[in-house]
Amino acid sequence: MCELFAMSSLLPTSVSFSLNKLARHGGADGPHRDGWGVAFYAGRDVFLLREPSAASESDLVRYIEHHGPPSDLVVSHIRFATFGERALRNTQPFTRELGGRQHVFAHNGDLAHTETLESPGRGCFVPVGETDSEQAFCYFMNKLTALWEGATEPPPLIQRLDAFNAFVDAIRELGSANLIYSDSDALFVHAHRRTEPGSEIVLPGLFVLSRNCEENVPDLSGSGVTLETARQALTLIASVPLTGEDWHPLGEGEVLAIHDGMIVERSVA
Questions:
Q1: Please, is 201 exposed, middle or buried when counting C-beta atoms within 10 Å of its C-beta (0-12, 13-18, 19+)?
Q2: Phi, psi of 102 (to 5 degrees)
Q3: pLDDT per position as a tens digit, 199-209
Q4: What fold does the segment set 3-268 form as a domain?
Q5: Partner of 221 at 20 to 30 A CA spacing, among 163, 164, 183, 234?
Q6: What is the per-residue burial (b if ≥16 Cβ within 10 Å, else e) of 77-93?
Q7: pTM for this model (two decimals)
Q8: 3-state SS of 76-87?
């Protein structure tokens, strides 16, 4: 199966170490040699990089590790192809514009009969490639159209979470669905199940690591300058733990809504 990674933070930060570890799974330490992609949010827009080749052998990945743009929302995917040929059009993350914002989606798992989700030609969002993941994403975006129509700001979080939960309920019936989705404001996560190639052992679909810390700043009060304490909140999502820290497995069907580096809603679908 594929490898997923996402980060939400209060302040823009670098993901070079985690991206490097993820890239090692993309060919060097794992079987995922069919493509990679990473989306760095910059406000409403994204800086998207993708290649239909092994991440561990990519000069572009090595460049990102040292020169990647700081971001407060990042979504990445390492591909092990099951649907669709090795090609850029089938390489995640996928993006679409809605409500004047870029929406980003990445999926780990296999979904059968995604063509049954929506009748051909219905809705303005259609796949470019042949993957089950993109078919599911376009179905979701078509469902979101009414919610975002005419919006100048993101709709209330609870409404967006309800829409995400309804989408999850629809595709869970079709197969394994570990999902990461962002609308540029919040990060939505659904954990399902995971199996390694050649194994029938069912593993946790996703893991989470959260940090909330304060950094000391110089005391400049004597000079008439006051600096507030720099705070950083950070939540990471990954298919497998990327460091030796205490990553927590998400339960099957667990859904998270993450904003500014903090988990703000948590439920089980």
A1: exposed
A2: -85, 130
A3: 666 678 899 99
A4: Glutamine Phosphoribosylpyrophosphate, subunit 1, domain 1 (3.60.20)
A5: 234
A6: bbbbbebbeeeeebbbb
A7: 0.88
A8: EEECCCCCCCCC
